[in-house]
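Help! Submission page says 'invalid entity' but I think these are all valid:
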Amino acid sequence: MANTPVTVAHGDGIGPEIMTATLHILKEAGARLDIEEIEIGKQVYLAGNSAGIAPASWDSLRRTKVFLKAPITTPQGGGFSSLNVAVRKTLGLYANIRPCVSYHPFVQTKHPSMDVVIVRENEEDTYTGIEYRQTDQVEECLKLISRPGSEKIVRYAFEYAKKFGRKKVTCFIKDNIMKRTDGLFHKIFDRIAPEYPEIEADHWIVDIGAAKLADTPENFDVIVMPNLYGDVLSDVAAQIAGSVGLAGAANIGEQVAMFEAIHGSAPRRAGQNLANPSGLFLGAILMLVHINQPDVAELAHNAWLKTIEDGVHTYDMYKEGISKERVGTKEFAEAVGARLGQKPETLKPVTYAANVAEADPKPIYSMPEPQKKELVGVDVFLDWWKGSFHGVANELGALVEAVNGDGLKLQTIANRGVKVYPNGLPDTFTVDHWRCRFVNDAGEGGAVTHAQIIALLKKFDEAGLDVIKTENLYNFDGAKGYSA
Amino acid sequence: MANTPVTVAHGDGIGPEIMTATLHILKEAGARLDIEEIEIGKQVYLAGNSAGIAPASWDSLRRTKVFLKAPITTPQGGGFSSLNVAVRKTLGLYANIRPCVSYHPFVQTKHPSMDVVIVRENEEDTYTGIEYRQTDQVEECLKLISRPGSEKIVRYAFEYAKKFGRKKVTCFIKDNIMKRTDGLFHKIFDRIAPEYPEIEADHWIVDIGAAKLADTPENFDVIVMPNLYGDVLSDVAAQIAGSVGLAGAANIGEQVAMFEAIHGSAPRRAGQNLANPSGLFLGAILMLVHINQPDVAELAHNAWLKTIEDGVHTYDMYKEGISKERVGTKEFAEAVGARLGQKPETLKPVTYAANVAEADPKPIYSMPEPQKKELVGVDVFLDWWKGSFHGVANELGALVEAVNGDGLKLQTIANRGVKVYPNGLPDTFTVDHWRCRFVNDAGEGGAVTHAQIIALLKKFDEAGLDVIKTENLYNFDGAKGYSA
């Protein structure tokens, strides 16, 4: 079979050691790879590349479409941005996959039968990092959840479950509070799940779900989540399984995929032949399956499991009474290499199947079927401060009533989501960030035009009221597209 | 000493039983209470009160300022809103306090020496529930973090630590991503912490912090967090300590405070004398301390600990080999009552001190010292769809360049936080939600007027481009108040 081109970066700190160890095992196992090396990390940052990667390296990633990446060190000081964020954004890596498995009784854990895969949406949510300060007192961040973005990740979770013989996909959301954003994610989950009747589907509100995951992870299988919940809970899952040092991750895009350890570059451990290469190695296993070398993945992964089971452990796993032999990075890799062909006896051996090219693959996102959208109002946000956190709403109300007219009328004023005008309560705590909702003066739901909104903004300006932002109100197929 | 007026609601499901049990213990322990009863919950909802509380009941809450609340059942079907949200918003209950303690070896837990208090901000974050759908594909939620809101909760956490003899306060934030919103929370934490030199202060990025909390909670003491992280991790902490059935919570406002169990009304267990009253009872202990009856709180809490230690357990705690006697709700309360005056021997007895009225109490929030705010641009968001998720950004760029002029110029177009124009990458996945950033055409940072922004919006309208929202760009004391 032909070799598969793969881009490899050795990174910083313990990166080069664990990459060498990983590639040693892969080579011994017969991985069919053509490796292109690129440099990333500290030296590349210091050479003036703000994201730690040289422009030319993108060509390699776009050519091979497969990236095995060791951890890097971001230099201290300002002006350096995250390499991972740059790679994820530039290449559209929308899915972060993190298997979290416990290796009881060979690696200490409070959760002996844990085997959870976290599938985390990787492009949206508050992690788009769009933030504004528009008043003295308030900072704002936008949380964005899109239909195709949610389709991509939910579809990926079910396809992953199908490919890897998983039994259940669980969705974590907070749609009792975030009815629209998390509600959209949930709705898409409910729409896609029935296409996989062989896979059980359920969902939890993220607070209770997280509590159950942290307490009884053995009850979960694959869990799919928006970005923020996934970020937090994938770390929780990896940690309680045994250690973040034993977890690899895949970052999947439409074109390119990146594979890595989830831990950092641990500069203090570097160059001492101490580090555990297992996280990166397990990332590389995900890569081998991705590039359709399941035979190699299976051989190498089972040899690794046998090594763990034989008690041949690096310092971080080593535990008196459990471990048999304390080894360095290189010796660990050699121990795995020496066990190629063996399978674990206590731990469950892995099996990987070849990728199946489906005759009629499901699209990873659907094309939109637009609904009828009608502009029905606008929320005008003001910066307004009268020297008190209490009892000033009616005064603002009177000022804003004065800009009414031309077919729009003030309906309510709210402060941090609490209605304060009309008929607000005098004891409500209010900051300098006010939302004034205007609707058609013939009644909410009546059509409004952009020109009317522009005229309204002009009147605000003339009244000396400081408009800091606007949010238009729309109905879609007659249903409100905005919260109360 | 005079009695303290307290408002009590018996709630739904198991609520009446566990409230009766709790009040029984409180009475036996000599609590000095004048109880005003109000009705909340299912019947009140069905009588036409959309938040499950009758208007007249607010008077009682405002009068007594102390609310001991049993769990309620929200009826099925639409039109009913959360009672807890209504109480929290109406009364400005900004702090949610949840002690999570394990009672090893008497209640099963994987974390025998856990004793963590979660202090959760309760009014802000994405939980203000301000959401918009403005395009076919994208839903938006606003995350708001305010300076005084953050001051209130951070101050509360340190004052709590001081009052209850806690050694450390830890802050969880994600300010490597949300540099402005979570950055503000972190900055305020760093500013307030040094006012309490006797209390250790540290912080974690919430993903790693959550992982450590779930794995080794014994390393934490008091943890203060924004609303969403606090919601998720307070459930995690309660669950891993033993059970959500054993946790009470306080919700603190400037005027009024509410005390409750964190579990629900468990209608299927109702009326069978089965339910464990401990969650509500521990909520009532927090109330006794709050109303300055530390003697009663100490007496009752130690009797409860002794009961747990004696193995007198309700069904949910009962475990063969650990428990001695399986009792009902009523008998459990009587067992606690019978132990008044006793202290636990294995578990640590509690001590509570009287509230100290400080001569010069620290204000719970500071008055603003406004910075110089300058309008320097605007982000205009468009709904624009050309039938493809790829390769259309330059086409939009050309259309938006055409509305340039009058002192404003288009700087960049971004899609879900990724820059796509000018010099975007053709393979970036783009949805129908675009952000067009305009700055002073003499250079970013130059002054812009509201009139210029209004003129720009007019040109967008004339060009037939669908503006869905705007976000003004400001500098504060010369520093950028917006993300890239």
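Support: the input was valid. A stray whitespace character was the problem, and the output above is from the cleaned input. The mean pLDDT of chain B is 94.
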